Amino acid sequence: MWDHLPRRVSFSPPTAFCTALELISFAFAFELAVGYLSDNFLHFALGLLSRAHAKAQGVPQTVEITKVDVQKVAAGYRASKVIGSSVLNEANETIGKIDDLLVTRDGKEPYAVLSIGGFLGMGTHMVVVRYDSLKFADNKIVLPGGTKDGLKMLPTFQYSKE
Q: In this structure, are residues 55 and 61 in contact, taking their beta carbons and an 8 Å threshold?
C-alpha cells in the first residue's frame, strides 16, 4: 500500500507565522512527495486563501472601497474623448481645445489644460482651468463666461519637468 512513497522525505513544517501561500506550498510539496495530489488539496488551498488576510511586511493592510453608481459613470465622458474636444462659450463660439487633463499630486483636484489660438500647433497658448468650471451638456463642453481674450490673459502653462 505504501510502496509508491519515496524512502526518505524531509520537510520543514510550517511555523505559526507563515502565510497562507507558504502553507499551500508546503502542502503541495508534501502531496507531490507522496506521489499524488488528493482531491482535498484544492479545497485546502482555496480554504486557506479565502481566510488569508493581505499582509505586507507583516503589517495588515486596509483599503477603503466606496460603492460607485456604475450606470452613472458609464454614461459619462471618457478622458480620451474629452481630450481634443473644443471648448465653447455661452455664445456657442469655440474659445479653445482641451489639450490634456491633470490632477494634483494628492489626486484631489482635476484641471483641464486648454490650448488657445494658434494654427496646427504653432503659436498655441496653453492655460489651465479648474475641471469643475467646465459644463458638460448636449455633447458640448462649455466654459461659462469664457472668452478667447480672457483665456489669453491667464498665465501660460508649462508641464513640469518631473
A: yes
Tell me which long-range contacts 14-20 makes (C-beta under 8 A, separation of at least 24). 19/52, 19/55, 20/48, 20/49, 20/51, 20/52
Classified by CATH at the fold level, domain 77-152 comes out as SH3 type barrels. (2.30.30)
What is the per-residue pLDDT across 80-115, written as a single tens digit (0 to 9) for each? 999 999 999 999 999 999 999 999 999 999 999 999
Nearest to 109 by CA among 84, 88, 129, 83: 129
Cell 488551498, residue? Answer: 45
Domain residue limits, the chain: 20-60, 77-152
pTM given for the model: 0.58
